[in-house]
Amino acid sequence: MVRPDNPRMTRKHRVVVGLSGGVDSAVSAWLLKQQGHEVIAVFMKNWEDDDQPAGAGGDYSGYCSSNIDFVDAAAVADVIGIPIEHVNFAAQYKDRVFAEFLREYSAGRTPNPDVLCNAEIKFKAFLDHAMRLGAEKIATGHYARVREKQGAFELLKGLDPAKDQSYFLHRLNQAQLSRTLFPVGELEKTTVRRIAAEIALPNARKKDSTGICFIGERPFREFLNRYLSHAPGPMVDELGREVGRHVGLSFYTLGQRQGLGIGGVAHREKHRETGSAKAGGAHEPWYVAHKDVASNTLHVVQGHGHPWLQSPWLEATDVSWVAGHAPAAGPGLPELAAKTRYRQADAPCRFAPLGEGFRLDFHGAQWAVTPGQSAVLYDGDVCLGGGVIHAVQVPAVVPAVPARKPARKPGRSSPCQESFRASAGPGQSVA
């Protein structure tokens, strides 16, 4: 049996654990109980709309039922032998997380609500509630670690690289980290599953949750359609030709391949090799490359490696640093790395402060860097913090032309000789 000791827990504490109904938080609670702490479980209900079991009526029933998760959490608490409280944070979630989610999508960006949920609900509303219960610490089932060093707290990656969740936790501050424990952050997922089976937890084989609660298993477009107004418009390729119609820019994100509904385009022109963005083959898949909100146009390209999907730099705003200040920048300092999306490999980059935000220049161009997502900086295993991607390099798009217009005659120069232009500075959206 694995019982990792926590070097930060030399004395026993009252610890309030966020028990979600999943296996990670369940094993976290058990580990803390085994270490001799007074453990209290809190189940957080963060969403109420559509929250019905399947068959309870309505078109969206069964997609995101917290009732089932609470039953699982209560069963776990009973096996472990700890009290559990059901707390409703739905109002705070809708005000602090969901409203921002809708604002970002309406502006043509692609937000990450899990990042905001951690900062505003799980480590703010939940933390405040736990303190009112007399807690000295809180704990969750995240795969991350906290290290105290010279009186400050560092956020570290989880030891299981396949499950590390520090990306979603990068907005946590010193006060939050000083009161937080991540018991499974020192373990691999396979070990967590094995522990759950050995102690006969009722959710030992429960599959991991995917996506965000308020969307659940329903189709993403179906969900957004209920909350956002949308206007159909043209999909155009790099030649400016209309190759399809989109149903509303909010329903698409950069790098998206599925759900475009575009067939092949015959007789695609070949671009000149010098200074041109080469068109993909007639049978290569299509990807979203750019969203022009002003003209309500969706720009698409063929081929995963198309230059329009690459960006060598980004600018970010709305920054948050774990240490309370930005990392040092300049020559001779250790090289940093960044992630522009979850599960992405760390990408070496040069960091430079820029106004109230920062700029990252990558050693190699990054694929589908998306405004609204988070750019998170790392120094080895240490998560430094990050910001919301605001500007990236975007293609020098060609104005759309009617789909019925004859193709350009061979030998005429392409309007795409200049493949890219630099995006506007801070204050202008480029998604």
CATH class of the largest domain: Alpha Beta
CATH superfamily of the largest domain: HUPs
**Whole-angstrom Rg:** 24 Å
- Number of discrete domains: 2
Description:
With 431 residues, the chain is an alpha+beta fold. It folds into two domains: 14-221, HUPs (Rossmann fold, 3-Layer(aba) Sandwich); 231-431, Elongation Factor Tu (Ef-tu), domain 3. The chain is built from seven helices and 19 strands. It has helices spanning 23-34, 66-80, 90-106, 113-132, 174-178, 189-198, 220-224, and strands spanning 14-18, 38-45, 84-88, 137-139, 144-149, 152-157, 180-181, 233-236, 242-246, 286-292, 297-302, 310-321, 336-339, 347-354, 357-367, 374-379, 382-392, 394-395, 420-421. The strands form four sheets. It has a six-stranded antiparallel beta barrel. Strands 3-2-1-4-7 form a five-stranded parallel sheet, with helices on both faces. Helix 1 packs parallel to helix 2 and helix 1 packs across helix 6. 41% of the residues are buried.
